UniProtKB/TrEMBL annotation:
<keyword id="KW-0812">Transmembrane</keyword>
<feature type="transmembrane region" description="Helical">
    <location>
        <begin position="76"/>
        <end position="103"/>
    </location>
</feature>
<feature type="domain" description="DUF1468">
    <location>
        <begin position="5"/>
        <end position="137"/>
    </location>
</feature>
<dbReference type="Pfam" id="PF07331">
    <property type="entry name" value="TctB"/>
</dbReference>
<feature type="transmembrane region" description="Helical">
    <location>
        <begin position="109"/>
        <end position="128"/>
    </location>
</feature>
<keyword id="KW-0472">Membrane</keyword>
<feature type="transmembrane region" description="Helical">
    <location>
        <begin position="37"/>
        <end position="55"/>
    </location>
</feature>
<protein>
    <recommendedName>
        <fullName>DUF1468 domain-containing protein</fullName>
    </recommendedName>
</protein>
<dbReference type="InterPro" id="IPR009936">
    <property type="entry name" value="DUF1468"/>
</dbReference>
<keyword id="KW-1133">Transmembrane helix</keyword>
Length: 145
């Protein structure tokens, strides 16, 4: 029954995303498709996956192993914190911290998570901000980058 409940939730999310994304209009035409294409495409994919879960769901589901629910709650808290601190801390610092904490949730060591987080956030900052010209917030490191 859990798969079908998740499928119904996915369908509700897809409907909400479609309603919210339908009215998105750019003040000027800068792309052939416009800004509404991404949320509508994502809503379509989520809706199809939701339909599949409702249709094929109903399998028995095992309970989460001990401690998994706490890690799931922490992951949600980290994601909310990341969203709220992203602009103020900047992409590099916020993504580094998020990567370290998520890596620790999955059993990684402090040093490996820290090195991986910093290298990954710097790589993606350079890729998106400098190469692909997608503006990312500098935050605390604005003067350095």
């Amino acid at each position: 029954m859990n798969d079908r409940i998740l499928g119904i939730g996915a369908l509700a999310l897809a409907a909400f995303m479609t309603a919210a994304g339908w009215g998105i209009e750019a003040p000027f035409a800068y792309e052939p498709v416009g800004p509404r294409a991404f949320p509508l495409l994502l809503a379509g994919i989520i809706g199809l996956c939701g339909l599949w879960l409702v249709y094929k769901g109903g399998h028995s589901v095992e309970a989460n192993p001990p401690g998994a629910n706490g890690r799931i709650a922490l992951m949600m808290a980290f994601t909310v914190g990341y969203a709220f601190l992203f602009q103020w801390l900047g992409f590099v610092v916020a993504t580094s911290l998020m990567t370290v904490f998520v890596g620790r949730l999955f059993g990684g060591g402090w040093v490996k998570c820290a090195i991986g987080g910093v290298v990954m956030s710097l790589f993606f900052f350079v890729l998106f901000d400098k190469v692909l010209d997608v503006v990312l917030p500098g935050g605390l490191l604005e003067t350095l980058i």
